[in-house]
């Protein structure tokens, strides 16, 4: 594992070469019972409730747990983009048999996540790697993860290296056949249609999404080849189970789930009476600030 600087101030002494996710300065603030992480400006990167630090306080982070609808027996999770570690903490503490590997490119973010946001130290069930997720994913064992959570942004946009078809194909390679890639997207990004097309090509068109009001993000699920085409009949019992266990709105996500069409042709839905309808071609127009 790459060496981690001993302090945020030590990491910040690296020479600046312009905007880079690996070098962006981290600032922490608190207001109205919230602890906030900022990267380079006043925009909020992560937030944590001080009275309930393990809670998923944002709609899109909650929706990213929807991967369990498609792979309910998930044990091995890979996170690309740690941020304040809300998802990492939630999985580590609520899914007690799960193992989480998190990749974070910015050493200051990793330090802050552990010292200010309660992300656990490395152990049998949690490991944090400092490095570029687009590169490190090439070194991972094939078919070694059940769910991959992708949430890596810089300057309000997804890092370009993790939006290309070749990257999505590498992620598909580290997923088990019944695995799921879960991606947080900002719905009004001009590049979103291209990202979704790349994802659709890499996963053979097996791509679905749910909106996350009031965040106005779009959480996207790309399914491995061993997962059956989703229908309400198949997903509803899982939604009932996970909603009771984790107190998250899984049943609403099943209701709102839509197939993501490729820009060149609409996805075909299995001819079942209650199959999930296709998604509209145009993403939601507004998007809030991305936080995790």
Topology:
Blueprint: H1 8-11, E1 26-31, E2 34-39, E3 44-49, H2 59-64, E4 76-80, H3 86-94, E5 99-104, H4 107-116, E6 126-130, H5 133-136, E7 145-150, E8 153-154, E9 157-158, H6 165-174, E10 175-186, H7 192-202, E11 207-211, E12 217-223, H8 232-246, H9 250-256, E13 258-259
Parallel strand pairs: 4-5, 4-7, 5-6, 7-10
Antiparallel strand pairs: 1-2, 2-3, 8-9, 10-12, 11-12, 11-13
Helix pairs in contact: 6-7, 8-9
What does this molecule look like?
- By secondary structure, the chain is of the alpha/beta class.
- The protein has a domain at 57-259: 3-Layer(aba) Sandwich (Rossmann fold).
- 26% of the residues lie in helices and 24% in strands.
- The chain is built from 9 helices and 13 strands.
- It has an 8-stranded mixed sheet with strand order 6-5-4-7-10-12-11-13, sandwiched between helices. A 3-stranded antiparallel sheet has the order 1-2-3, with helices on one face. A two-stranded antiparallel sheet has the order 8-9.
- Helix 6 packs across helix 7 and helix 8 runs antiparallel to helix 9.
- The radius of gyration is 18 Å and the shape is globular.
- The protein starts with 7 loop residues before the first helix and ends in a 33-residue tail after the last strand.
- The relative contact order is 0.15.
Count of helical regions: 9
The CATH topology assignment of the domain at 57-259 is: Rossmann fold
The first-level CATH class of the domain at 57-259 is given as Alpha Beta
Helix content: 25-40%
Which whole number gives the mean pLDDT?
A: 82
CATH architecture of the domain at 57-259: 3-Layer(aba) Sandwich
Kindly report the spatial arrangement of strands forming the biggest sheet.
Answer: 6-5-4-7-10-12-11-13
Taking the alpha carbons of the first and last residues, their distance comes to: 24 Å
Q: In this structure, how is the largest beta sheet organized? A: 8 strands, mixed
SSE string, helices as H and strands as E: HEEEHEHEHEHEEEHEHEEHHE
Uncertain residue segments: 1-18, 266-275, 279-289
Structural class: alpha/beta
Rg (CA only):
18 Å
General form: globular
| Number of beta-strand segments | 13
CATH homologous superfamily assignment of the domain at 57-259 = Vaccinia Virus protein VP39
Strand content: 15-25%
